Amino acid sequence: MTHPRTSVARTPVGLIAFLFIIATALGCSKNDEKTASQPSNSTSPAAAASTPSSSPSGSAAELRMQCYGDGNECEVTRELLAGFEKKHPNIRVVVDVVPYKAILENLPIQLAAGEGPDMARVTDLGGLNKYYLDLRPHLKDPAYWEKNFGKTLDWYRAGRDDRGIYGLMTQLTVTGPIVNKTLFDQAGVAMPARGATWDDWVAATHKVAKATEVPFPMAMDRSGHRFAGLAISMGAKYFDADGNPAVVDDGFRNMAKKFIDWHKDGTMPKEIWGGSGGGQYRDGMKEFQNAHIVMLITGSWQIERLDKNVGDAFDWVAVPNPCGPAGCSGIPGGAGLVVFKHTKHPKEAALVLDYLAREEVHAEYMVRTANIPAHAAITEKGLDYKLSLAAKTSLNTFMGEVSGILPPAYVLQGYPYNRAIYNATVSRLGQSVAGELSVDNALKRITADINEAVKEAQRK
Amino acid sequence: MNDKFASWPHRVLAVVTGALRAITHLMLNIPERPMRWAQRVLGGQRIAWLFLTPNLIIFSLFTFLPILINFYYAVTGGVQLWPSERPFIGTENFQKLFACDNYFDYSTCDQDLFWRAIYNSMKFVSIQVVLMVLFSLITALVLNRKIVGRGFFRSVYFFPVLLSPVVVALVWRWILLRDGVLNAIIESMGGEKVLWLLDPSWSFFWVIFVTVWAQMGFYTLILLAGLQAIPRDVYEAAQMDRASPWRTFRKITLPLLMPNMIVVLALALIRAVQTFDEVFVLTGGGPGSATTFLVQYIYNTGFAQQIQRFGLAAAASLVLAVVLFILTMAQLRASRSKIDG
Amino acid sequence: MARLQLKKVVKSYPSGDVIRGVDLDIDDREFVVFVGPSGCGKSTLLRMISGLESVSSGEIIIDDQCVNDIPAAQRGLAMVFQSYALYPHMTVYQNLAFGLENIRTPRDTIAKKIAEAAKMLQIDHLLDRKPTALSGGQRQRVAIGRAIVREPKIFLFDEPLSNLDAELRVQMRAEISQLHRQLGNTMIYVTHDQVEAMTMADKIVVLRSGNIEQVGAPLDLYNRPENRFVAGFIGSPKMNFLPGVISSIDSDGVQVKLDGDEEPTILARVDGAGRTDGEKVTVGIRPEHIHVPGDQSTGRTAAPNGGNTVKLAVKHTEQLGSESYLFAELSGGKRVVVHLPGQTSARIGDIIDVQIPAPSCHIFQTDRGEMALPRLDAPIDRPTTPQTDQ
Amino acid sequence: MANRVVQFLTRTRGHGRFHLTDWLTYGYLTIGVFLMFGPVMWLALSSFKTEAALLQFPPPLLPYGPAEAEVEGYDRPLPLYRVEKEDGSETIMAQVRRIGLIAQMVDPDDPGTIVKVNVKKRKRVEEFQLATENYSDLWRQFDFPQYLWNSVFITIVATILTLIFNAMAAFALSKYQFRGRTAVFLFIIGALMIPPTIVLVPTYLVVSGMGLLNSPWGVIWPAIATPTGVFMLRQYMLTIPDDLIDAARMDNASEWRIFWRIVMPLSAPALAVLAIFSVMWRWNEFLWPLIVLNRSEEFTLPLALNAFQGELKTQWNYLLAMTVLTLLPVTFVFAFLQRYITSGIASAGVK
């Protein structure tokens, strides 16, 4: 008879199985530790191999680096660090690749709660200043940093009196237009030369669009940052004399009006700015790549991607920023590696940054990630990017644009709450593009939004 | 030689069942003695608290405590994270939310987007819930017929429920973009491209469509269960009474389906008010703010900003909770006799 | 040995009392039936005895031990539920074994006990089936088997036959009675069906709205109902109740003038002590106690010792062959049911004379309690107990 | 044979005739299949496209890539084009290079002569190509097994605990009469009203205060006490007859044994439904693990998936491939449990 067993009779089977489970669980957790003690990234077998169990000097330090990538930045960092770890066998850097969202939204909360990684690749350069470790005391040669990164070091600083060195620019970006050259050729329209105004470009691209039956002459990424470049060319200052935000001035207003008009008269497709809500970022790459747009206002970071994706479909080229009354400015931007105060290994972290900042390492990083360096010496020498000729030319055009950037653009980039300004710009102008707000009301709301937010941030 | 291949799944299966049996056995016997003791001490009915304890502890810690902290956030200002560091400002956040020159025109409000979000949410909930119930019902009715491959069709309609909201929105966004699949299809048939996500009405439509698409399967199954529970002879009786199909549906199917309908309605309502992920990825709340709903407003204010205004967001979330509570209570009151044993 | 005593047992709910001070003694080996209409509290009382319901006040005593605070499991009782309450996810064998496993009975003992019980109940071929695969009667047996294997002091049955069809019910009735004889345990059986009560019980407890109306042997209750409720509840078809007014009282009995101008006067052989003329009362006559003289087809043509003769207008008849029913009206229109043995020649529309023996008539007061007046010469139902009449 | 198929297909309302409502039914179902499955199939196909193809308009249905050919005298394979000749006929030629509007082409059979062609007169020859590198790159770049294990661990442990704890609470709320029952029930239902997105930050503070950051338990514990689960199970348990529980009590079972041996097995359909939901929720969860788990060795699949979303660019090809990979396990689980789930939800939702 095979009648079901009583619970008593079940015990031996159960017990054996239970022991088995425990054994498996232990086995797994052991595995866990093993994996945990290895550099996470499997792309770098060298790093794993170079982790000796005994450290010649001092105790082993494990550094956690939170990294987001627009492309291969994190991988390249990890691979470059293999060289560092060979030299410093007692320091291990684990690169945790996270979505940008984690850096943007979660990292500030983690830092405020006293948690978070040792280092991170961030874009809120000024905003997170209070959590940064000043690297200056730990650096071998602060003067090297001052000399080569002088312009961008300010972006990380708390104020005018702050002399600290906080981070390493891993990517310098410049905004600017990219143009579908083939369309110009097909239309037989000459491309406006350097120094041409926005209106010249609008007229030219309109002509091209009409001739080639392309739906839209221009488009711009949905980003307050991109817009700032245009506004500054129109004369926007963004700040008053005391350095407080005073975003909506004549320059800003003129640009905003022009911008809305461009959407109304079909110069720009409404769906990029109008099709989303809030501060969401959208780019116009899909449209540009399908040759639905003659000119896309974007930035240097898209070049590598364009090179890969457009391929042979048409010729494209980066052109100098069109001009407004105040100048022909783009706006810089970028991401940087920073170390946080709460790290247990400040010295080691500084060593890591020092290594990555070395000219040959930095140059390799820039070449492999196809980014513009913020390093003066490297910029001067130029880099041999592994890109097509068109891409290289375009990248050089963008690098050339750095010199044309007007001072307010630098101030804005260094302002701790710049993203609050960008967000307000995008969400309100976006509403205006979608027809929900008049330009005047949008401008009023931008002012109110920024003032309120900044007031809140300063409330103690 | 076949043996090796035949035996390993068996072995795996044996290990798995053995493990499960062991867990079940231990779960039965380890807590039993203390529970028996507690039963003696507490008596027959109060032992219920012991069953509730694990859930209540976790619940209090990870749900209730955060909600309390959130309440406190609502009466404080600043951008500090720890409640103790936040300056107390009383009802200032609420005043800010409710500061309007004219309550019938959200553009005169201090927090215009908040009111816009409330308006959008109300519109969305009232339309989406109705459509959700309607389509779930239609689908359930169709699937309740004697059809070939019912199991397959049931799975088909349920499948989107398995997808994460983000994936759902991502896929549909690709379909609906100007250069998306849908426009490609329209163009290939000789039509004109439609800017699905730029026109506020279309955008609103698609938000509703996509949420219904993604969640309908679940409610369909609940209704299907209800339909299958209706005894056959009731329909036969109706047939004898020469009731028209429509009358049969209205006078027999619908009333007998009511308990299921109420569950569907309640769940769909709560879910609709809390809609966030799908819309955030699909339209980002746009065009402009045409599909910005309350949860997204709260998320944008408290989380997605460089200057994270937890206080204002918390105050708005309180308003949301009150709205939901009133809705649910009203619904419970309307159907008190029907659910809840 | 299992004696059960209830002392002033009360069950209160916020909405009101369900059991209102019940006193009851149940002897060892007794088969007691709680009977009453639905909502009378009989099931609640049973559940209180079982320990599934708590006692609001009073005491439940099993074998001289108050069990109020002893949980159900430890009272040593077993219960058969109306719904059978078989665990649907377990086989019959597992269902039977569950209780024994819970008290850590050795495996082979369990197997032995189940085999015995299964044989006794003739369910040994069903042990591997799940309850859903069983017929109603089989489920019933399994439910009883589950109680049997526990070897309880007292068996509790909660309307166990109400879900069975008529034929099975009769069969199971006999089987449960036989089981009682075989096992000899105390059994408490709850039902709303007076037939079950009459056929199975050693002792019937009639309950109404949380009170005991009467306790006694089945025939005792039939012959000497203490009040109108018990009289109406016991016996089928139901006793005829005719309202009237006492017209005279003497040693022969009590005369009652039925309400209504044309209605007759009925003599009942009851003790009218303490009653007064003109008092409102109800006359109760069992349908089977009405005789139809001259009905050639019935064997019973004349009343044993005379009594009342009344005219009835036959409105409807039911002929069952072995017995028949007349649905008739008095001259004033009061409805009366007559139950005759054999077949009747009465036809619809006939006016017939019937005899109602005075000793068979009951009289009930109309005030609260509706108590019966003591009958002067009711039949002796328990030969062992000396009775005073006749 | 064919007759039989037709007969089978038309076996609808029992009367043999294919009624108008049957046409409507099958029409609705067919549209439904396209509408419900179409987007998912498209997602699966797209995950095999290159990034360039993903951005292409009109979007190709199947993954296509440019056809290339080895041409004598050229180191690299050259892309093939369909060229319209002056006489209107078409030939297939390989392109050497393109300068502005003029493409230099060669006939693969005659590599010596270069022909100049206007770009408007050529069309790329495409062929079916699976961009499997979307997947292989993932495998190379990512510690995929580790993420899979993390996701599986969190999903399974959280689901088991969810089932046990919620079932216990639901049992207490459905089968006992005790003071405070309604209050507890309302308390739990009340929490249904607060979307978790809203209390993300306070919950983070609590979890951080308990030292659960960077641990799978930081994801598991907060997920366990789901009000929906308690609600669903309670509603189902209300349908279990009280008699069964009383019978078990009479059978000398302790309350725990009743729960474990009677109530749990009888709630199996509802538990299955909750299990499916819990698996889906935990498997797809993104916002919460993103803030709790910062170390890549603790990452779950959705975190890894979203690592392709940068500040300025999203690597769609990898994102889609990863999405498909993430989707596979749930789909399999569903395929296996389909029958159980559909009938289970059925009974779980109500009563």
List descriptors.
heterotetramer, C: 390 residues, alpha+beta, Rossmann fold, OB fold (Dihydrolipoamide Acetyltransferase, E2P), 2 domains, six-stranded mixed β-sheet, five-stranded antiparallel β-sheet, 32% strand, disordered C terminus, D: 351 residues, SH3 type barrels, MetI-like fold, six-stranded antiparallel β-sheet, two-stranded antiparallel ribbon, 15 helices, 8 strands, 12% strand, elongated
Q: Into how many domains do the coordinates of chain C divide?
A: 2
Number of separate helices of chain C: 8
In CATH terms, the superfamily of the largest domain in chain B is: MetI-like
Spell out the helices and strands of chain B N to C: HHHHHHHHHHHHHH
- Profile the largest sheet of chain B: none
Rg of Cα set of chain C? 25 Å
The end-to-end distance of chain C, rounded to whole angstroms, is 38 Å
Helix content of chain B: over 70%
The geometry of chain C reads as elongated
* CATH structural architecture of the largest domain in chain C: 3-Layer(aba) Sandwich
- Strand coverage percent of chain B: under 5%
Q: Give the uncertain stretches of chain C in residue-range form.
A: 382-390
The rough form of chain B would be described as globular
Compute the number of strand runs of chain C.
19
CATH topology of the largest domain in chain C: Rossmann fold
* Separation of the first and last Cα atoms of chain B: 59 Å
Explain what the structure shows.
The complex is a heterotetramer of chains A (460), B (341), C (390) and D (351). By secondary structure, chain A is of the alpha/beta class. Helices cover 49% and strands 12% of the residues of chain A. Chain A is built from 19 helices and 8 strands. Chain C is of the alpha+beta class and 390 residues long. Chain C has 2 domains: 4-219, P-loop containing nucleotide triphosphate hydrolases (Rossmann fold, 3-Layer(aba) Sandwich); 235-370, OB fold (Dihydrolipoamide Acetyltransferase, E2P) (Beta Barrel), CATH 2.40.50.140. Chain C has helices spanning 42-50, 92-102, 107-121, 136-149, 166-183, 194-200, 218-223, 228-233, and strands spanning 4-13, 16-26, 31-35, 57-62, 65-66, 77-80, 154-158, 186-191, 203-208, 211-216, 240-250, 253-258, 265-268, 280-285, 307-319, 323-329, 335-341, 351-357, 362-365. The model of chain C is unreliable at 382-390 (pLDDT under 50). Chain D has 15 helices and 8 strands. In chain D, helix 4 (133-141) crosses helix 15 and helix 10 (242-250) packs antiparallel against helix 11. The chains are: A alpha/beta (460), B mainly alpha (341), C alpha+beta (390), D alpha+beta (351). Chains in contact: A-B, A-C, A-D, B-D, C-D. The interface between A and D is large, with 57 and 40 residues.
